[in-house]
């Protein structure tokens, strides 16, 4: 009896999305989440949130400016972005996003200008480049209407929900990737976005010199709530998969069942989330007398939260593409050193840092207000002391005024 060997060959397709996509999803999530963190003070008038809003608005504007750069780079041919407008497709979430994103960017720019305008007016007589920038950007001495700031803020918040929806939906609709094709992915992206945004605000609170105690407390509470939501979403996704005979979640779990790297990734993600939740809960439940000393290390948890948010997007966007769609096993991906790999990742973060430094040099963002005019701003106060002997006094000073800006 003759035996015959039959060879089955399946093509290996190159990955469609490069690390630029990770950078875009990471930065745009920080952008819309920090916008919501700034909203309680700037839009809804809660004075206690004003120091937090100043830091959050700085993070929001800078990430909003840099995120579209990463998105254009991920198109591989950035100049073809106009195709979205010349050949729009109403059924495509990318096409819908191309309409929402420019409006959102303009909304964030206008909201930032309205919040910073009274401080710019107060610096019109300053010497050097900061004074020149203040005279150019303040556009006169008239008061900034509070109603206009609220209206722009509300409109931008609505647009931000569109950003949340389209960034999650453009992944969740891909039926060829079971690990993407689930209703649980969009809320998980939002939850981890708020984890990252709260973490970044904690870090900025430290490195900017503000070191506001109220901001630390508020962001730790946001971190705690976002970790709870992320845990519930992850648990629901897993239970949906093990209890369903069919469906994208069950197929997703089956596709990575035999992969040691995916098991280690799941273990890492779970342990990091639990550790972050436990550490935040520990800080928030300490006696009030011990909180100032303990909260001085809240920025470390902020770094962990940033790491968690970025790595989640790397796993979702890059590692999922390693799972072969038309053959067995997994495709290895090595990060190249060029602009489509490591250089692009470092360059994007470098561009964001440059935007932060330029704004810190030229814009008095520490005096961002809820509208009004330059005369409504409180007088400048000296920078808070770094001495640990007076943490309460330092916190009170930072809460009222914030650290003085450069120039």
UniProtKB/TrEMBL annotation:
Protein name per UniProt: NrfD/PsrC family molybdoenzyme membrane anchor subunit
Keyword set includes Signal: no
Family, similarity comment: Belongs to the NrfD family.
Transmembrane segments: 20-43, 55-73, 93-116, 147-168, 188-207, 219-239, 266-284, 296-317, 337-363
Gene (UniProt): nrfD
Keywords: Cell membrane, Membrane, Transmembrane, Transmembrane helix
Cell compartments where the protein resides: Cell membrane
Classification via PANTHER family: PROTEIN NRFD
Recorded topology in the membrane: Multi-pass membrane protein
One Pfam family from the record: NrfD
Listed Low complexity bias regions: 373-398
Renumbered residue ranges of the record's region Disordered: 370-407
Gene3D superfamilies named among the record's database cross-references: Formate dehydrogenase/DMSO reductase domain
InterPro entries associated with the record: Electron_transfer_protein, NrfD-like
């Amino acid at each position: 009896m003759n035996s015959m060997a039959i060879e089955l060959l399946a093509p290996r397709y190159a990955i469609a999305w490069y690390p630029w996509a990770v950078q875009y999803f990471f930065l745009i999530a920080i952008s819309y989440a920090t916008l919501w963190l700034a909203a309680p003070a700037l839009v809804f008038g809660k004075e206690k949130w004003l120091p937090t809003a100043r830091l959050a608005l700085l993070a929001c504007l800078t990430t909003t400016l840099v995120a579209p750069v990463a998105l254009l780079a991920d198109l591989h041919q950035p100049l073809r972005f106009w195709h979205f407008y010349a050949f729009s497709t109403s059924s495509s979430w990318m096409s819908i996003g191309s309409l929402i994103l420019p409006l959102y960017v303009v909304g964030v720019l206008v909201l930032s200008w309205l919040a910073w305008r009274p401080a710019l007016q107060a610096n019109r007589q300053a010497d050097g480049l900061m004074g020149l920038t203040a005279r150019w950007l303040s556009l006169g001495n008239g008061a900034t209407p509070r109603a206009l700031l609220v209206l722009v803020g509300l409109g931008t918040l609505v647009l931000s929900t569109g950003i949340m929806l389209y960034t999650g939906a453009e992944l969740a609709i891909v039926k060829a990737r079971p690990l993407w094709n689930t209703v649980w992915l969009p809320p998980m992206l939002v939850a981890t976005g708020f984890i990252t945004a709260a973490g970044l605000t904690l870090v900025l609170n430290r490195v900017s010199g503000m070191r506001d105690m109220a901001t630390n407390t508020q962001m730790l509470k946001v971190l705690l709530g976002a970790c709870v939501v992320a845990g519930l979403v992850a648990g629901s996704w897993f239970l949906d998969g093990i209890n369903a005979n069919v469906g994208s979640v069950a197929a997703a779990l089956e596709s990575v069942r035999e992969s040691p790297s995916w098991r280690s990734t799941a273990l890492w993600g779970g342990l990091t989330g639990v550790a972050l939740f436990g550490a935040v809960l520990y800080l928030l439940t300490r006696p009030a007398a011990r909180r100032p000393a303990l909260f001085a290390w809240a920025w470390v948890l902020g770094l962990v939260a940033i790491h968690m948010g970025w790595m989640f997007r790397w796993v979702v966007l890059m590692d999922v593409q390693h799972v072969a769609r038309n053959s067995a096993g997994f495709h290895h991906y090595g990060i190249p050193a060029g602009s489509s790999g490591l250089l692009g990742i470092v360059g994007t973060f470098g561009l964001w840092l440059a935007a932060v430094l330029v704004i810190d040099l030229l814009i008095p963002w520490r005096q961002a207000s809820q509208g009004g005019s330059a005369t409504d701003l409180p007088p400048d106060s000296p920078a808070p002391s770094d001495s640990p002997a007076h943490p309460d006094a330092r916190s009170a000073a930072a809460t009222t005024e914030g650290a003085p800006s450069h120039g």
